[in-house]
Amino acid sequence: MKENDHFCEDPPAWKEYDELTGLYTQEAFYKHLGELLEEKKQGDYYLLYVDIERFKLLNDLYGMAEGDRLLRWIGECIGRDCKKKGGIGCRIRADNFVLCAPYEEKELRYALWLTHNELKKYPINFEIVLNIGIYKIVDRTVPLSLMCDRALMAANTIKGNALAYYAYYQDNMRENLLREQEMVRDMRIALEKKQFEIYAQPKFNHANGYLVGLEALVRWNHPEKGIISPGYFIPVFEHNNFIQEVDRYVWENACRMIHEWIQMGKCPIPMSVNVSRINLYNPYLCEIFENLCDMYRIDKKLLPLEITESAFIEDTEIIADAVRRLRKAGFSILLDDFGSGFSSFHILKDLDFDQIKIDMKFLMGDYSHGKGKVILESIVKMAEALDISVIAEGVETKEQADFLLGIGCPYIQGYYYSRPLPQMKLEKMLDEYLRDGRVQFGEASIENSGTGMDSFCPADYEAVLSRLPGAAALYLVGDRVITLNINEKALDLTGYSMLEYDSAVRDDVLGIVYKRDAQLLWNRINHSIKEHTLINTSFRIVRKGGGIVWVTVWADLVGIYQGKPVFLAMFDISAEETNLVSMMEHARKYRYSLNSEAVSSAEIDLTGNRVITADGADLYNINESEQVSYSRYIQSIAVWVHPEEKEEFLTALNKETLLKSYYRGERLIKNEYQLLHHSKKQYVYVRMSIYFVPNMVNGHVYMDIFVHDITEQKKKELDLMAKAETDPLTGIYNRGAVEQKVNCLLEESKEDPEVKNVLFMIDVDDFKIINDTMGHRRGDQALIEIGRKLRRLFRKSDICGRMGGDEFVVFMTGVTCREIIVNKARQICEALQFTTGDVKADDASVSCSIGAAISPDDGQSFEDLFEKADQALYRAKRQGKNRYVIYGD
Ligand code: C2E
Ligand code: CA
Ligand code: CA
Question: What is the Å distance from ligand 2's center to 274 Cα?
Fold first, then answer.
């Protein structure tokens, strides 16, 4: 009946059927859909938007005819299923279909699954993936086109997501989209204005409550929106690659924090950082981390790297290689979110990790018995067998923590112990834990990297103690004296065996001091910490079994352990004066052994203005007679100091200045200078460390001076500064450097208004398509190639830089006529039209559009020129890409 009506009307201006697939056209679809929904008031109707992933690529690779064949095939599949259900379908545009049919929820999922599998049968060597967005029609008054838009929106959310092939439309998607756009708009400014803040969440050993490490977690402190959680912005930044920059920012700040703790004499605690998947494609990733550790002089074990399991879904080889390299370089690798994906076990088979992290959230609810328990237990057991440590995160309750401890997983992270904390709160917490000595580093113990930091491990003391008479390394926590290490002779003195000592004395040495002497001894210790003097006193101890003996102790502050001063104490039963001298001699030897890599050292009697011993003839050529008085000694070294630093050097090493420092309470001074190396005949960077040592015999202030050659380290720092100007991917300048350099050059050229400069802005055409269809690695290759080509095309004095993403600029100075600019623009266009890729069938063709602006006519600052060039570029894009436009033309 209806059909007949049609014949009476004018024939529609559009075609009813799509010629290629035989499905409805868009217009016909809307018309029939309206009728269908009008007619069938019952049943749950679903609108499905179907998009073929990477269809353009398939077209490019296999030709249009093959592309058409696929469309027809998919059209058939879809049409058939749809008809069976009493629905209708259309090809809405190019490679997009829309269908509508009534389904039961379960049935729909099954149908989707079937289609997904059906695709694998299509005879072509190309993985066909559909993105399907689903809109459930609840309110039938919603305009049909809006329904389609919503289904499309849902389809877009899973573009490029290897884990999902369909998604339901949700009301918040539109908001999310808007919010996403806002984030993209604000993100660069956020980075510049330091709106990203580093929080850290501590990790604990639930067996003893000790703190075992930290994880850096980023927050966005937005000026209007307040603190934004990474759950919102990280996925967006992962999508547009900005995560690379945010991650680097977080890593560097994590390193800086650790560095600061070391500088303050605190015991550094490992802080893991998250590494997004995209970073693992960066061929320089390992160097970036190594440089950071070098620059901030921290041990690599202090910076474990967390890589989420889902990173291993695609391109496993490239990613696996990156992980192997990092691990080989000495970084600890932690497999994050273990068990969240489907590839967990397969990754463990192929790669070595130092730790796996299980998220309690995956096992929410019924974790402590039934299947959840079995799974958790097995993971822990398996990890143990593979010699990988396990940590659980998201632990919110005592029950969870106890349960985990019970199955052999004491390491936990979660709100139960602490939320992620901002730096101030974190440091307060760390201080408390350090003060109480409740800190432990599991496998990742700190190593002294030989950089002159006075932080040592118990093992360091062991070797030293073995060479001394009765001696112990002790440190203070609260009102207790704790043993770091004790040698046998000292142990003999107490009468305890090592085992007994460990359980009865180690953590409270004052416990074996005769009661009436204990307070006195404690006062002495505090006095010497305050006055920086040696401890030299006698007291009684109660030996095992009750015997009392008098001992004499000499103790000197030699280092810092877990933020606490460490004393080297020597004990003897007889109190003779000669022991004082030998004690000082030992402490001195100890300082020397700590500075064994020094290129020069000297022992000075500062009060007496006398050089006692000095070496380092290799470094500066000084003769014997000059070594007698301290002042002359310093004068003769000053000859070798860089002229610009000489005055500073002489002031810093002046006898009176030093004495003042000593009486102010300083014990160690470190300075850096450039010295002309006598035998190398070139300038070297040195660090000079001065230890003040009061001489208990004659009351003079002595000092030990050690000079370390830090040229290598310094070079790396300078190198890193250069790197701070370069874009890690392409090796040309980054945005910041370009801005600064261009503005400098513009300032200079203001003097001669005749001289023109030009700013070219270059943008890759359809770069998103390359990235989406060929993967980020191919996209990166194209960018690297562009950087290389630009550098070749321009003079050294011109500034080439990458502004981020696929945007490049070149600034050319001293241009005399317009022809040159036009010529250059054409050359760039030609040079940047190329194909990239290593397999013929898999290469991407690249082209670029260019906008140019000229100073002084179009502007006198980088910002002005950039804006004008951007407008010109926009016009070039609108005119059809792969061309140039000069502003004002
Ligand atoms: P993640 O690496 O798995 O980090 C653990 C997340 O669990 C953190 O969320 C943390 O605050 C949260 N969490 C910790 N304990 C508990 C608990 O007891 N209960 C619950 N419900 N949650 C807990 P946050 O900080 O919101 O970070 C979310 C994700 O964002 C991180 O997951 C990580 O994938 C990503 N992320 C955070 N910072 C960075 C970063 O600097 N770089 C990169 N690439 N990703 C980051
Ligand atoms: Ca993590
Ligand atoms: Ca995690």
Answer: 5
